[in-house]
């Protein structure tokens, strides 16, 4: 299961990770809830290649503002703690799998 991070733990959690996905979400977000099972399956598939994190935007506004997260769900791809890409909106599992597979191959 993706590790929950906060404004205070974000940098320490992501800085030395070669490839990370941060799921910006909120408990009231329907599309976030719909995408959660897909992210869990993909975390199992890519567990040795990608580190998965979750950040609740209601409780952690500083990091959400820093990465200009204006709507959720938003996934931010980081390489060694540096944001490289941002994907916003609901994505079905197959589309996310394809995206993550490409990102792993780019590394």
Structure description:
This protein is 38% helix and 25% strand. The protein has 107 residues and is of the alpha/beta class. The protein has a single domain, classed as 3-Layer(aba) Sandwich (Glutaredoxin), CATH 3.40.30.10. A five-stranded mixed sheet has the order 1-3-2-4-5, covered by helices on one side. The chain starts with a strand and ends with a helix. The mean pLDDT is 95.
In short:
It contains 4 helices and 5 strands. It has 107 residues and is α/β, with parallel strands linked by helices.
Low-confidence stretches: none
What is the string of helix and strand elements?
EHEHEHEEH
Class per helix and strand makeup: alpha/beta
Major β-sheet profile: 5 strands, mixed
Q: Count the domains.
A: 1
CATH H level: which superfamily?
A: Glutaredoxin
Rg, alpha carbons? 12 Å
Number of helical segments? 4
Tell me, rounded to a whole number, the average pLDDT: 95
Q: Let me know the number of strands.
A: 5
Q: Note the beta-strand portion.
A: 25-35%
Describe the global form. Answer: globular
Strand order of the largest sheet: 1-3-2-4-5
CATH uppermost class: Alpha Beta
CATH level-two architecture: 3-Layer(aba) Sandwich
The percent of residues in helical segments reads: 25-40%
CATH topology name: Glutaredoxin
> What distance lies between the first and last C-alpha atoms, to the nearest angstrom?
23 Å
SSE layout and pairing:
Elements: E1 3-4, H1 10-14, E2 20-25, H2 30-45, E3 51-56, H3 61-66, E4 74-79, E5 82-88, H4 93-106
Parallel strand pairs: 1-3, 2-3
Antiparallel strand pairs: 2-4, 4-5
